[in-house]
Write a structure and sequence with these properties.
The chain is an alpha/beta fold. It is built from nine helices and 16 strands. It has an eight-stranded parallel barrel with strand order 3-4-7-8-9-10-15-16, surrounded by six helices. A four-stranded antiparallel beta sheet has the order 5-6-14-11, with no helix packed on it. It binds flavin mononucleotide.
Amino acid sequence: MNKVDLSVSVGPLKLRNPILLASGTVGYGNEMSEHIDLNKIGGIVTKSLSLKPRKGNPPQRIVETPAGMLNAIGLANVGVEVFLKEKIPFLKKFDVPLICNIAASTIEEYIECTKILTEERSISAFEINVSCPNVKEGGLQFGNDISAVGKITAKVKAVTNKPLIIKLSPNVSYISDFAKVVKDEGGDAVSAINTLVGTSFNIFTRRPKIYNVTGGLSGPAIKPVALAKVLEINQRVPIPVIGIGGIMNWQDVIEFMIAGSSAIQLGTVNFINPKASEEILKGLEEYCIKYNVKKISELTGSLKLK
Ligand SMILES: Cc1cc2nc3c(=O)[nH]c(=O)nc-3n(C[C@H](O)[C@H](O)[C@H](O)COP(=O)(O)O)c2cc1C
């Protein structure tokens, strides 16, 4: 039995611990299950699912950068139908909350996807991606538009009883304005942040290293930005936040929780060390014991500014 209570709540969503695996970095869980015991983590967020399968962008789709990586996958995914038929049965073997991430090119597509998936009992919650920087339609077009984010929140909420999390873009002036509209329109939580728009060139060919020219920057390089965005939301809007961005170890998790995160997601680190989630859980437990933190949820928003 755990000596400390690692359980957390993200609005109505109850998790055994605050460690979730981020969308797009663990596919649909299959490969990850060879490295870690999925029954131990707080939850899995699926790759963004769209109504129809998507091939994504042509290669090169990924490039390494100092302290991070750029990706322009372009939301390649199997689509909701194949997901339900071929991916869910595998995930059902585990006792792990499943959060379905949905991406779409139109508001109607978000609604349709949610309607189809909400029938599936093994899905615990939805995370709506309104912030992908790597697609022409949808993506940042929505993520930068407050009224679109409000509309998507309200319309998706109307077709599901499951907890609704909106994944926000950092590529805006005030992320808290977006969190506020999510709260006002009935969203249960926000995830912050998705990737930052970046690029990289080959100086010999003078061509972009990524086919799409720009990509989404992730990894330790974005951690200070992500932390500042989580803090901004926490100071201005009473809505649960799932912190994401450059988390590499348990110390980073504590920092994100202190800044106001109820839970966190691990993304890029899964490519570097697929066992990171289990190692981080061990580190969190030891920290809590050493510093007499009885419930890890006490840490959320405990930053001392004076
Ligand atoms: C290769 C790759 C693919 C991603 N695909 C998605 C996606 O399909 N949907 C989504 O909402 N976020 C996607 N993301 C963003 C991550 O979920 C996360 O928000 C971001 O990488 C920041 O966290 P990190 O620095 O820990 O990686 C992707 C990130 C990477 C690196």
